[in-house]
Amino acid sequence: MARIAIGGFQHETNTFSLGPAELEDFVLGGGWPGLQRGQKILENLRGMNLPISGAIEAIVAAGHDLVPLVWTAATPSGRVDQAAFDEILAMLLEDIRNSGPLDGIYLDLHGAMATTSLDDGEGAVLETLREQVGNVPIAASLDLHANVSPKMFAYSDLMVGYRTYPHVDMADTGRRTAELLIRFVEEKRKPFKRYIQGNTLLPLTSQCTLSEPGASLYRQLEQIERENSVTLSLTLGFSLADVYDCGPAILAYGDDDAATIRAADELRKVFNDALPQFDASALDAPEAVKRAIELARGETKPIILADTQDNPGGGGQMDTTGILQALISQGAQDAVVAAVYDPDIAALAHEVGVGAELDLALGGKLAGPGSGSACGKYAVERVSEGNFVGTGPMWGGMAINLGKMALLRIGGVRVIVASRKMQAADQSILTHMGIRPAACRIIALKSSVHFRADFQDIASAILVVASPGAVTARLTDLTYQNLRPDMRLMS
To answer: What domain range includes position 108?
Structure first.
């Protein structure tokens, strides 16, 4: 019976965002569970759509011993505070030191973490861990948006990425990673491996695997994988990170060196052939709202406005109000905005209570690109402590805590206000406030692609909106300084 340690340290860093990730963000979690350590991992994370949850399931099914370390994830934002990074890494290393002999280590990582001092957070984690555990096999699951560095590849024995965006396969990826680790641990060997970096940055909104070219690309990946008896990953990269190793990467692992190299090279050709299709387009807020109002007149299902540039799942501040202001000024009816981060307004709504009317300057208070506050007279329709359970494909069964929340109305527009950040990719954010999403005419969601997993089936149309925010949709609007010399931008 093998002893396999499990842990995780997740953050997706938008280096263009001014809002940092502090230790409290990892401890509290918000849209994700808060920091878990030791047996709390096994008690609180089982059965969720998280990579570590799938890994736990696989290791238990194989009859091996689990050695829980520390697991934590914070909502994407600007760079991680170095002191917070150091403290969490110290927890991980301490738990490893106290764990006794190990036969393998599984880590739930994102792959695109940067700190205030480091551009390659995961590379630093893996390098430090390798120094401590020596030749013990290390496997990690990665987000589809990982920026995989040579250091990450060198200091791990196995890395496996998600294959879906929206990321409905997080638990499945953790399970697959753990099963492969278990096989190599049981056979007392390590796989042959191959790593290829791409040289094109892709917009986030074009990476969705529910549409082309992503859908076909990952089907072809699986075919190449079967034909060569290898394990393949294609991470498309998190393009809002101005770091040297930003961008796509191909990872291949197998029992035969020649087959591993061949499969990776085949996937590189397939990916390069698909690159011209990764284009993206977006409307500005006034045009998008005008079109949504026109479309809503002839539809029975909602029109979705994707507020991609203020997506907190990509490092947005979640407090810009460009779409909200356009909905108000154009007289939209039966519209809802989910959600605006404004803890002071949420607290005030709780203080005055349901039924009160307030002259407010909502949102637009945090540093970074935006459209100012949405000012006007708002009625308080509902308040909530912000504790609820996710119901959709990504967050289903997950305990969510967004702090004090309020549902406000101004004219025909309702807006959900939250005290913590989470992208609006699960209908529970609306339903726990008494809103039936399918009955709305227009829904504005602060999300880029993840919302499609839970909202696409109820929508009559989806419009991607480029209202000012830190999650820039057009990469050519950004000024990069640290990319590799051969990198090119697609927008």
So the answer is: 3-277
